[in-house]
Amino acid sequence: MKIQQLRALVAIASSGSINGAAKALHVTQPAVTKAMQELEADFGVRLLERNPRGVVPTAEGEVLLRRAKTVVRELERAQEEMAQIKGAREGTLVIGITPIAGTAGMTEAFIAFRRHWPLVKVEFRELGFNQLNEQLRNRTLDLAFGAFSKPPTVEAGTVKELVAFETTFVTRAGSAYADAASLEALQSAEWIHTDVTDAYPAYVEAMYRASDLAPPLRITRYTSFALFYALTFNTDAVCNWTRHSLESTAQGRTLIALDLPVEPPPLHLYLLSPPAAQLTRPAEYFVHCITQTTRISPPPTF
Prior knowledge:
Structural class: alpha/beta
Distance between the termini: 38 Å
Mean pLDDT: 85
CATH superfamily of the largest domain: Periplasmic binding protein-like II
Strand content: 15-25%
Helix content: 40-55%
Number of strands: 12
Radius of gyration: 23 Å
């Protein structure tokens, strides 16, 4: 098994074709085909098959692909880091974020990062927690930031709390519920959330029952964050929002914090690091920038 064979597998899975993989790797199609034939011969199983979507991994290929992504990305990191030690300022940094985490100082951190690493190719991926967990595990993410009400459980790697943000219930300016001052006044509102578990609906229902009130009739989950945002800013829906975002973002300033007798629990920003792997220098510096933004540690020397 050779690294170019694993690269070919990863490139085929990404592009969906032998031709696309050849272009991505800057080699000929026969070279990619030969690499895959040799890899299949080594393992004695078919790793690829063709379907209406193109060339895709078989079940056995998927198992190897998860490992291959890790190996290929780790080699790329090693090459980048050795070049950086010799003075190069290029490289790649892939950061996963949950939606609300994107409002927690990321803009300021990125601006500071860019001043120090102007040539590093940066990619931000807005993902749900399960996707973050998987991509951290297979090392397609360098690091991730998630905003949760309690520490998440990751399959492997480390979780570190960076900062806690106060949250509040909000609705858009001009909403029929903008002047609501009691939970009772919001019983007919559409309560929306993105929690893939039942924790948020259970929390809202318990909050109402603690006030001897029937829970809202509509507590609606949206796993599409784009739709969640669209409904937040264009309907009379009620949801949770961080006070930090209300004060520091243009979108947040279009929302109204509801003057209710109860407040939701704080939201915590967590750094999620990959398993058993040292952060690259750019990743390390981005962590420094976000911790400076949230003012939780003194600056290190770089």
